[in-house]
Amino acid sequence: MTAMPAGCCPTCGQPSTRDWLFDFSGGALWLDGRFVRLTPAEASIMSLLLRADSAPMTVSKLIGGVWGMAEPRDAAGTLYSQISNLRRKLTGTKVRIVHRRGHGYAAMFEPRATAPPE
Description:
Elements: E1 20-23, E2 28-31, E3 34-36, H1 40-51, H2 59-67, H3 75-90, E4 95-100, E5 104-109
């Protein structure tokens, strides 16, 4: 396996000037200059949250989106565990998974720092 130069997407190898890239088909996440390895369930959750564009998604919608009719026995507990793992993997990045009581979960991006006006 060939190492990718810094600033290149690990999925396609192309230079990236963006803070993040997400391969919706493969679940690869390139964030803040590093590759974040996700499990299939974590990638599904991230995909759903990114597509929601910062709008909260309910637990039931996330469960349906991740597992459909083949949901695990304790689907809610499994979802909470997957979100906890995802949050841990995103620590130190510009993305946070937030819970809005009564509304669900959302992926929130910290705003970019801007240069002070001259």
